[in-house]
Amino acid sequence: MKYTFALSLIFLLMVTSCGTSKKVKQESTERTAKEQISSRPEQPEKEQNEELEDYLDEQVEDIDVSSLNAVELYIYNFAGIAQEEMRLYGIPASITIAQGILESGSGNGNLTKRSNNHFGIKCNGWQGEKVYHDDDAAQECFRKYADPKYSFRDHSLFLFERSRYGFLFDYRSDDYTSWARGLRRAGYATDPKYPQKLISLIERYQLNEYDKEVLGKTANLPLPRPQKLNFGNSEFYSVKKGDTLYNISEKFGLTVEELKLINKLKHDHIQIGQQLKVKN
Predict the structure, then answer these.
(1) pLDDT tens digits, residue range 9-46?
(2) For labeling, which of 68, 82, 149, 261 is most exposed (least CB within 10 Å)?
(3) Which CATH class, in words, describes the domain spanning 65-214?
């Protein structure tokens, strides 16, 4: 009986000791983490979050952009938004990037600098801001955008909403050669060597790797890049012919007053091509 009691007591002491040891280790780990976090003067939570975001950005920005040539810098800056457009509309990111490089002179062309128009899209009924530029003819009308991201979105819509480009969407999203040739056949550009120029850019700079990443395939991206350009946490709608504030608000489950409020509209007049925020 005494022997049994002694064994029970020893077992109880061992369990208690083990639990205490684990607790001490856990408390020690938590204390160390807290000490690391609070090693600097106490900050408001917002400032701590901002500091964390800055730190994470620094970890991503591990490339010296001054070492990039003009084309590489363009890819670095705009590959992210091209991939987002691919996710939304199915247009290969490689094609979008290559077209942007070619049409905008890697973002350094006179038209692009004046208008943020990266794809040489002419007015064609555009009701937004315009600029005039010598192209196939003198002083042709081109669309002007407040920010490059709107140019990328308009490029997607330009292809997606026009029937003459409809056959392109029958091609796979990673078939950049068919897309390049199809754009020429559909009349996007008058240059007979346009497809070869796009394909050459894609293959020289491995732009098809960005397509692979979107499609979930193994990708070896040629360049790291900063956070992709996007429309923040909002969604935008490009006004089309026949649109009214009422039918747009109905489409997105808003009232007309809500639509006017989030877009800071003082009247009911809207223009074709105007970008309306339809979600906060």
Answers:
(1) 454 455 444 454 444 444 444 454 444 444 445 555 55
(2) 261
(3) mainly alpha
